[in-house]
């Protein structure tokens, strides 16, 4: 088996780490709170903006398709965790807001989420965690800068 170039190895390593953390968090948060990580992410976006967001803004911030957001919002609304109202500005758009129940559940889940990440990553030396964060931030800035240069500053969604 031939050795892959460093860029491919970084990609595989990032996917592997993301997959492992995502699967663990999703399994535990679903079991303990009945809240999938996808639902948690929607609530996390809404809790920071009590005035609400449009479905388009939510989709953009979560970096997922509108169809994914629509289904999540429908389920969270049915569970009483958010409200969905026709936008007063654009009648074709909806604004979603977190409810007190959703905010309370998000807060409890966030505490467990953060505790789990601390448990899994906290035994690494602080210097190594700082270096990992600096490296990931550098990669994100570099990739974002390269994308912006290619698209003239416009965000372009790429299909798989």
Protein model, in words:
This protein has 160 residues and is mainly alpha-helical. It is 68% helix and 8% strand. The protein has six helices and three strands, in the order ααβααββαα. A three-stranded antiparallel sheet has the order 1-3-2. The model is unreliable at 156-160 (pLDDT under 50).
Task: Give the arrangement of secondary structure elements.
Layout: H1 6-33, H2 37-47, E1 53-54, H3 55-62, H4 66-78, E2 82-86, E3 94-98, H5 100-121, H6 126-151
Antiparallel strand pairs: 1-3, 2-3
Helix pairs in contact: 1-5, 2-5, 3-4
Given helix and strand content, the structural type is mainly alpha
Rg, rounded, reads 18 Å
Number of helices: 6
Number of strands: 3
- Report strand order across the widest sheet: 1-3-2
- Which word captures the global form? globular
Q: How far is the N terminus from the C terminus?
A: 26 Å
Q: In percent, how helical is the residue content?
A: 55-70%
Give the biggest beta sheet: 3 strands, antiparallel
Instruction: Sketch the topology as an H/E string, one letter per element.
Output: HHEHHEEHH
Q: What is the typical, i.e. mean, pLDDT?
A: 86
Q: Proportion of β residues?
A: 5-15%
**Ranges with pLDDT <50 over ≥5 residues?**
156-160
Summarize the model shown.
The protein is 68% helix and 8% strand.
Keywords for this entry:
mainly alpha, 3-stranded antiparallel beta sheet, 68% helix, 8% strand, 6 helices, 160 residues
